[in-house]
Amino acid sequence: MTEQGFLRLSIAVTIFVAALGIVFGLVSGSFSIIFDGAYSLGDAGMTALALSVSSLIVRSTEGDRLPDILRSRFTMGFWHLEPIVLGLNGILLMAVAIYALINAVLTIAHGGYETQFGMAIVYATITLLVCAVMAVAGWRVNRRLRSDFVSLDINAWMMSGGITAALLVAFVVGLSVSNTPLSWISPYVDPVILALVCLVVIPLPLRAVRQALSEILLITPPELKAHVDSVAAECVAREGFLGHRAYVAKVGRATQVELYFVAPKNQPPKPLEEWDRIRDRVGAAIGGEGKDRWLTIAFTTDIAWAE
Length: 307
Prior knowledge:
The two termini are 45 Å apart. By secondary structure, this protein is mainly α. The radius of gyration is 26 Å and the shape is elongated. The protein folds into two domains: 3-216, Alpha-lytic protease prodomain-like (Up-down Bundle), CATH 1.20.1510; 222-306, Cation efflux protein, cytoplasmic domain (Alpha-Beta Plaits). A three-stranded mixed beta sheet has the order 1-2-3. 69% of the residues lie in helices and 8% in strands.
């Protein structure tokens, strides 16, 4: 299965889970289930956006024909959209969880509400099974694809599964204390578990958001920079250059490298084929050649062009 194929499947299943959650939430009177449905719906929207970006990246790197307006306005590709989508996704999920947490706290302060735990248990059981199946399927697919988008989607299914598992435990507890001396806690079960789930969910996307921001800001990955500097230093020593300047970044699935070699002035001229051979050798040593590598290698005698 391709990246786009799995994301399409994930969108369809997520919309089904979201609709199921909203319907069962309204019927059972459980705001935690409604939150779960709304969370899934937001995730489906972001997955659809990720699918669009993934499609643009693949089409632009594989030579597929793009509309003239896109080809003329995005001459450097669409890789930069990937971290934007990933960051937006994480921020949206955190915002939804924060809003739900505030509502849960207010509900607890006002005495809670009654919930039909039987219906809620049916929903939680079905949804937990769906989340487990999709997470396992995504993990198997991504062993081959190694896609950030699929990885994010797997994490979303795992998060949804964790939320649903917590809801299921809470609903079973709520049902078991009904018609007992502990029945007074029943109105608080749903808002309390919603608040706890939100406290767990809110920090989960932070790593993805931090990574996305580092890529949006073009923060240099230390390991990549050290590797490129090592390759360039070998070339400087081998070819008799005066030095080099390297500029590297990781933007989504793309690796961007700009490498400038400073050659001595008044050096005997070389044919262009010789400079190309040097480029080929450096490019091979850097590695990662493919549709997602953007490599620029230039030679100059004026260091100002390399700064």
